[in-house]
Amino acid sequence: MRIIALTVIAMIAFAANSVLARLAFATAGAEPLSYTGIRLAAGAATLAVLLALRRRNVRLGGSWSGVAALFGYAILFSIAYILLGAGTGALILFASVQIGMLGWAVYRGDRPGLIEWLGFVVAFGGLVYLLSPGVVAPNPLGALLMLVAGLCWAAYTLIGRASTSPLDDTAGNFMRSSPLAVVMIVAGALTHGVSLAAVIYAIVSGALASGLGYAVWYTALPSLSRTRAAIVQLTVPAIAGAGGVLFIGEALSPRLVIATIAIIGGVALAVISSSRRRT
Q: In total, how many domains does the chain have?
């Protein structure tokens, strides 16, 4: 029961990042530089406190390649959410992460089976359908930026795969990004100004949805199989979409619903098939 509770909390936290970003840009007049800087700084502070509570000496883990991937994800994520709804953005982000991970695995010599390819074809088809031109199609620039943000997060995940202490390394990457975060906060404040509401959304996103969210997830992760961990993350776009409807008043178009079913269903099929093949 404890692991289930921790997993649910982590998935809500991850989805909250999308909802908070959309709230900040749609209702609080946020701009991407200061929002991203505050989010990274708040995440770094929270993770540093968590590490300090666990031990006396805080080790600066992570790597500069991890910092670059983290920063690319964070800034592109923020810019994209000026143009996209919460559910749409989360779905594009999730799909591009999975596509990036698959592409890297194939490049490194992994050969997915027929059912895995079928699952990813269905998922990719859902993404193409979502992005295809039409009255309710998402903003193309926003979609492109979110696609690249997802690939950055896929790179961040791949960089950290060999980590023996994911929380230490995540904290180290956030802390290494802090000087740049300060520069971004100052630049954003000087060029656009920063509203109190936008600051609050960014702090909550960085400290709670990111910092504490990662801590909770890494606590639950050792008790989950790789397949279960991948499958439970399929709930994030759905939770983000529900949050967009409840808190921002976004509409759920038939296109988004169909694309969500195709992408989540296709990825789930591929993940389960991959697990059975490896076993």
A: 1
Residue range 69-96, pLDDT digits in tens = 999 999 999 999 999 999 999 999 988 9
- The single-letter code of the amino acid at 114 is L
Query: Distance (Å, rounded) from C-alpha 93 to C-alpha 72?
Result: 13
- Domain boundaries, position 236: 2-278
Q: What does 173-184 look like in DSSP terms, one character per residue? A: HHHHTHHHHHHH
**How far from chain centre, in Å, is Cα 239?**
13
State if pTM tops 0.90.
no
CA distances from 112 to 32, 101, 123, 276 (A): 38, 12, 15, 11
- 245 burial class (0-12, 13-18, 19+ CB within 10 angstroms)? middle
CA gap 256, 239 in Å, rounded: 13
Q: Which has the closest alpha carbon to 176: 93, 94, 104, 74?
A: 74
Nearest one of 34, 255, 241 to 129, comparing CA atoms: 255
